[in-house]
Design goal:
The chain has a domain of 97 residues. Helices cover 64% and strands 0% of the residues. It contains six helices and no strands. Helix 3 runs antiparallel to helix 5. The model has no long low-confidence stretch (mean pLDDT 93).
Length: 152
């Protein structure tokens, strides 16, 4: 499909965040604020950033590319650290930051856009990456994918 690996994941997250904000503004009557909302928002955003950073650091230490647009240039398969818990910590981190944004907006409609982000990332980013990694690392990647989940 032509959309595969064409839009950088950070741009997808920013587009999703803007759509969430627009949805919250379009239908303000379905807000669900709750006590401690700011604390939960902050904790979720920091957690997401930290998880994504762990992924970037692990790739950097392994000397492999962090460029998600060209997974075929990966020089090693990283399976330790955060990658022993999730195969996609950078995307999981983006999702958690978007969840923090949804909590901050406190609008039900904005939360409903999160599954769209997950679907898009799985279909147009993760699946093409997994095809490239299978081609590069064969049974090693297949075994890794069998024991570690895509997200959590």
């Amino acid at each position: 499909m032509t959309l595969e690996l064409k839009i950088p994941p950070v741009a997808v997250a920013l587009i999703t965040a803007i759509c969430m904000w627009l949805a919250a503004r379009a239908v303000p009557g379905i807000e669900v604020p709750f006590p401690g909302h700011d604390v939960v928002t902050g904790m979720m955003a920091v957690s997401g950033g930290f998880i994504a950073l762990l992924g970037v650091v692990a790739f950097s230490r392994a000397g492999t590319t962090v460029n998600p647009m060209n997974p075929g240039s990966s020089s090693s398969l990283v399976v330790t650290g955060i990658y022993s818990v999730t195969r996609n910590p950078m995307y999981l981190g983006l999702l958690l930051v978007l969840l923090a944004w949804a909590i901050y907006l406190a609008n039900v409609l904005s939360v409903l856009l999160l599954p769209a982000f997950v679907w898009y990332m799985a279909r147009y980013q993760i699946e093409p990456e997994e095809k490239a990694l299978t081609a590069l690392f064969g049974p090693e990647f297949t075994a890794y994918a069998a024991r570690v989940r895509r997200w959590i």
